Amino acid sequence: MFNWITTWIESLGYVGIFGLMVLEHLFPPIPSELVMPLAGFVSSSSSDMTLVGVILAGSLGSLIGASAWYVLGLLITHEQLMGWVERHGRWLTLKPKDIVKAIAFFQQSGGSWVVGAGRLVPGVRTYVSVPAGLSHMPLLPYLAYSALGTVLWTGALAVTGYILGDQFDRVQVLLGPVSKIVLISCAIAAVIWVAMRRRRF
Q1: At what angle do helices 51-75 and 32-44 cross, to 10 degrees?
Q2: What does the radius of gyration of the chain's CA atoms come to, in whole angstroms?
Q3: 24-190-73 Cα angle (round to 5)
Q4: Is the confidence at residue 187, as pLDDT, over 80?
Q5: Do 128 and 115 form a contact (C-beta atoms < 8 A)?
Q6: 13 Cβ partners below 8 Å, 6+ apart?
């Protein structure tokens, strides 16, 4: 897969990065943790691509790919979604617990901002769009929060790959703790939000 991703990026440039990041959300075995650092590394030695262009292409592809799950959430019910995942999710390496985890993360955090924060958390990043759709979150706030989180994530991956050079495979080790910090921060914020709502009523 590494050679295939490299070929896409080197031969198709920004279009390849965009396509790979769309596919990342539809075909989970393609990880952004590999695509974006590699793209950042390639841009450091390429006259055809810039780091800013890599980040924009990756962010746009990621936003469109994730939004497919938002649309799915708008069109079907929770029961229909879980039934479909149980029957066909294995073809996308998707398990019911992935959806349950994303929905719980969204509901417990109690705010639209979780869509943006969720983009920084592995295992939640893609599927947090589903509960946003199921809850009929308005499109413009969804896109705004999603874009913010997406640019932060793809930008961090690309910049780290750019800086590390041919050691870009260390990116996941370096950014792993960041994702954990975001997840813990969201959990703390959710507790505070719930406490404040109870105090009002």
Answers
A1: 160
A2: 17
A3: 40
A4: no
A5: yes
A6: 48, 49
CA angle 29, 4, 127 (to 5 degrees): 25
Size (the chain), residues: 201
What b/e string do you get for 94-130 counting C-beta neighbours within 10 Å, with b at 16 or more?
beeebbebbbebbeebbebebbbbbbbbbbbbbbbbb
- pTM to 2 decimal places: 0.73
Task: Give CA–CA dist 196/201, Å, rounded.
Answer: 9
Using a CB cutoff of 8 Å and minimum separation of 24, what contacts does 83-92 make? 92/26, 92/27, 92/28
Give the DSSP per-residue string, 180-195. Answer: HHHHHHHHHHHHHHHH
- Measured in whole angstroms, the distance separating CA 123 from the mean position of its chain's CA atoms is 9
pLDDT in tens, 74-87: 888 878 877 877 88
Structure tokens at 131: 């509960």
Closest Cα to residue 66, out of 31, 110, 101, 22? 22
Task: Report angle CA 67, 129, 196 to the nearest 5 degrees.
Answer: 140
Q: Do 121 and 129 touch, CB atoms closer than 8 A?
A: no
Give the range among 69-78, 139-148, 150-159 with minimum mean pLDDT.
69-78
